[in-house]
Structures are given as structure tokens and as C-alpha cells.
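User: Quick sanity check before I run a bigger batch. Here is a single chain. Can you write out its predicted 3D structure?
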Amino acid sequence: MQPGRKIYFLSDFHLGAPDAASSLVREKRITAFLDEAAKDAAEIILLGDLFDFWFEWKRAVPRGFTRLLGKLAELTDRGLPVHLFLGNHDMWIFDYVPGETGVTIHREPVERVIGGKRFLIGHGDGLGPGDHGYKFLKQVFRNPVCQWLFARLHPNFALWLGDFWSGRSRKKSYENDRQWLGADKEWLVQYCRERLAHEHLDYLVFGHRHLPIDLEVRPGSRYVNLGDWITWFTYAVFDGNELRLMKRNGDGPPGNDTVITGAPAGKP
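Assistant: Done. Predicted structure follows.
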């Protein structure tokens, strides 16, 4: 990394939810942040669930989200690398989003060495013990035959159905998303412990959980969950030496934002 440059991590925008009006307000806030972050960014890494539901047909995509898609295209056109790790709500991004915006797509967690630090980066869905029902559904949703069959549905009906599924999923996990369950009940904490039993990683960075968490799982190894941009408006930034979890304060430069440590116990 060049001196003075930073890597920004964001996750879980869920654009489209709960309605078009509030989603648009959130989308404008996100694109304003990306403008600010781009001033000193070496990379921007998005950890999934940009949309509450997304599916690409060969000749059709969901309406809306033009501000975010346009901003991502603008950043990559300027030569800024943008990486997108697909989440459980936008796993059906295929070639349209990367083709139009220039982002690099990742479908699985990735290990990277950045500034001499070892990172594990991913969305976080389906990792750790439990959630067996979702793990089965994930295999179904990723199956090319099932994707082909879904693509046979008319987009009007398919998008209504997808929004219905996504809304149910969000409501089911809403309360858990707002409180810390304790390390022994947090699946991603248990997953981090399992990984760290076999190798050293400095930072394990995930989204999906919707709760901002910065927890030392083992000495010298931190699990960082990015929270979301529905309730918390949080992100992480790596300056080449240290990763910090931040909460947005207004729409000014990221340097004015608040550092978060530990695991929030309740509502924001």
C-alpha cells in the first residue's frame, strides 16, 4: 500500500428495503460516503448484500439502484479497485454488475496479505455451526439448474417472490441483528476460533451479521463484523498498520467518524 492510502470495508446496504423512499435516502448516503472514501482509498471492499434482492436475467435486471451502480463504475473507471464479495441476498449477481461497474466479484471468502497483515475476508453466511436450513438452501440457490428454472419466471413475478423471501429472512433475524448473543452463541465467532486453531490470521472481516463487532478472538487475532447501513452506518478502514471499525458521523470526511471497540450489547 502507498503511504497515506487506506482500504475501506463496507457491507449490508440492503437497498430496496423496506421501501423505495427510505432505500433512496440510504443509497444517497452510501454514495456520498464512497465519494469521501475515494479521496484516500487504495481499494474499496464490499462484503455483500448490497441489495435486499437481486437476480440477473440474460436481458433484464431489477429497476433502480442507479446511483450506487453509477458510483461504482465511476470509481473503477478512475482506476480504483473495488471488490464485491457476494452475500446471501445478492448471490445471483452474474455478469451484469461486474460488466457494467468494473467491480471484481468473489463468491467465497478470500485470504489476503495486506501491509504485512493476514486477512480473511468474506460475507459470512453459512459459516460456523448451526443454520443448517440456510446451508441447504444456499446449495439449492447456487445450483445452476435451479437458477435456470428461476430465470424462466417472468421478472415481475420473480422479483415479487424474491422480495417476499428476502423480507421474511430479514424480519426473522432482525432482533438478533441488534444485540450481542455472547461469544458461545455467535456462529461467526465460533468459526473464527476454528480457523485460528489451524493458522494465524490478524483480521477476520465479515458482514452478514448486521451488528458491528470488533473482538479479539485470540491474542493478536481480531474478528471484525462490519455492521450494516440500515441501523448502524458502520464500516472498517485499514491504514496499512491497523484495522479500525468506525461509525459514521454525518456526511463529512471519514476522519471525523467514531471508532467502535468490543461488541455492542443492545440497540444503537
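Residues 6-260 form a domain with the Purple Acid Phosphatase; chain A, domain 2 fold (CATH 3.60.21.10).

User: Great, the batch can go ahead then.
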